[in-house]
């Protein structure tokens, strides 16, 4: 206990020392690391602290992230990926090893303030069919038993982050809330286990996906300003989908005998690119509405106690699967490099408190040279090699901003090709031979960015000087080299951090 207070005061001192006098807001955020060029963990931790985030959710026990979080004053919810559920379900020993290696050691050796272990990630998502139905609860029980055995039972709670599709309403209003019939008994068993052990239920709510799934969905209702088209449920008038969705869950819990189990919102946010409804304006509007509620300590009509809310997410991830859609790589409130996407006020403007605290960018980020790979001026857009060159570039680099309604969706054919070439060139660390698309490309020092479309320069991972093979080897080999180099550097940074 004393240790936690110490950490808290360090956090307060840190804020005060930085000249920013604010109350600790308790903002929480998800930190995903599916990036070709992840920001160094120490920079990410500083970014979170500079912006008043004191809680973070990780999707896996990433050693770099965990060590950087040691003695940072930031509380951690540590995720276990779904593929671990089966082994953890079948063997107590495996669960004990997991806890020992991924929880106990970080708590005791590095001073990481782990508060929750999130077992699985949306394991009952409809698209996973029934893959994780048998293993989630046994894995949850084994992890809980292992935490108790490790003496961490009081300090570290277990939970299972579930998608909001585990409940539904057949009457279109929250009071019709009930758990999905195919998993009803399982849901009750899990909730009972959590409740018996003083653990919270975790739900991910995505108003963006509601809007995306239904072209007739009222736009204002997705934000926190839908008074024009409220959903009327008895005496309650719902003006936003967040409240309506959350209260659907609270109704379902109440009907099944768990009216007061604590609920955490494990993920909620709005993407900025990769879809016509994903842009800076909408994301700012949604996230500001959300942050305002968090700062006001606002609950919902059905439950006045506010839930703990983890924003999704901190930074963009250019290597995330785009199976759900191109927007998947653009959920960050910061770009991939920790620069600010839009202004987000992090303090309430009340009369006697005039601080306009807003997001601040990451500090100390190192970039590659200020140069871009673009289509050569003399090359023709009718060149027969062009389509396959673009296709090749976009196979290895992130081109999700080029789609319809996205930030670079209005580029002409020439700029479109340039965007793809540059994405590839940057992703491969501007290495020699990575801007040679059948003689259609050339390196420039003039920034080709236009309007909303950003031609990025990648984070410097120290890869560009190390090109061993100056002659143009096949691009596949280049990529393999890069991947190897990234792995090696990750490994060395892990080893360095561990020393
Ligand atoms: C710790 O977690 C990592 C990442 O989730 C995993 O690869 C590793 O196997 C875990 N350790 C044990 C002993 O299970
Ligand atoms: C730009 O490139 C993308 C990705 O290759 C492609 O889908 C789109 O049709 C292109 N647009 C134009 C105008 O060439
Ligand atoms: C690129 O240009 C060089 C020099 O003009 C030429 O030798 C080479 O064959 C060209 N390569 C391709 C793929 O067109």
Automatic annotation (TrEMBL):
Topology in the lipid bilayer: Lipid-anchor; GPI-anchor
Q: Which GO terms describe its cellular component?
A: plasma membrane; side of membrane
Keyword Lipid metabolism on entry? no
Q: Where in the cell is it found?
A: Cell membrane
Catalytic reaction list: Hydrolysis of (1->3)-beta-D-glucosidic linkages in (1->3)-beta-D-glucans
Name the GO terms of the biological process aspect: carbohydrate metabolic process; defense response
Question: InterPro entries in the record, alphabetically?
Answer: GH, Glyco_hydro_17, Glyco_hydro_17_plant, X8
According to the entry, every stretch annotated as the X8 domain falls at 371-455
Q: Where are the transmembrane segments?
A: none
Q: Which domain of life is it from?
A: Eukaryota
GO MF term list: glucan endo-1,3-beta-D-glucosidase activity
| EC class of the enzyme, as a word | hydrolase
**Keyword Lipoprotein recorded:** yes
Q: What EC numbers are recorded for this enzyme?
A: 3.2.1.39
PROSITE patterns according to UniProt: GLYCOSYL_HYDROL_F17 (PS00587)
Spell out the family assignment given in the record's similarity comment. Belongs to the glycosyl hydrolase 17 family.
PANTHER family according to UniProt: GLUCAN ENDO-1,3-BETA-GLUCOSIDASE BG1-RELATED-RELATED
Specify the protein name. glucan endo-1,3-beta-D-glucosidase
